[in-house]
Amino acid sequence: MKKIDIACIIDDDPIFVFGTKRLMQLANFCNGVLVFKNGKEAYDSLKTIIISGEKLPDLIFLDLNMPIWDGWQFLDEFIQIPIENAVTIFIVTSSIDPEDIKRAKSYEIVSNYLVKPIKMDDLKKLMEE
């Protein structure tokens, strides 16, 4: 199993963030975690990381329903930034709307669509990929 260097969670739900970070810790999933409460905060911070030449997260868990900028707004802006190393984005949301699932597939950068909550098996599968 391959351990992730840096993971990122973009979600406004503190209980989900706490639980996911705890699962990551138990699974020895990653070396570090960045957490942002909305898409705008994440976009601004990740853009700064790109501009300064620092290492981006290897993967992002992105919620769709958040205040300020939702997941779609984040995606629409983030894909406009030229990035040297690919970032894998997993949409992790409570939405089971077929339109959301269809829309997620239209983004090349989105690797998968997971319905909350994340389970230990989900993390193990990601580490095997």
UniProtKB/TrEMBL annotation:
Listed Pfam families: Response_reg
Keywords per UniProt: Phosphoprotein
Residue numbers carrying 4-aspartylphosphate: 63
Superkingdom classification of source: Bacteria
Gene3D superfamilies: 3.40.50.2300
InterPro entries reported in the protein's UniProt record: CheY-like_superfamily (IPR011006), Sig_transdc_resp-reg_receiver (IPR001789), TCS_response_regulator (IPR052893)
Ranges of residues in domain Response regulatory: 6-129
Protein name: Response regulator
Organism of derivation: Arcicella lustrica
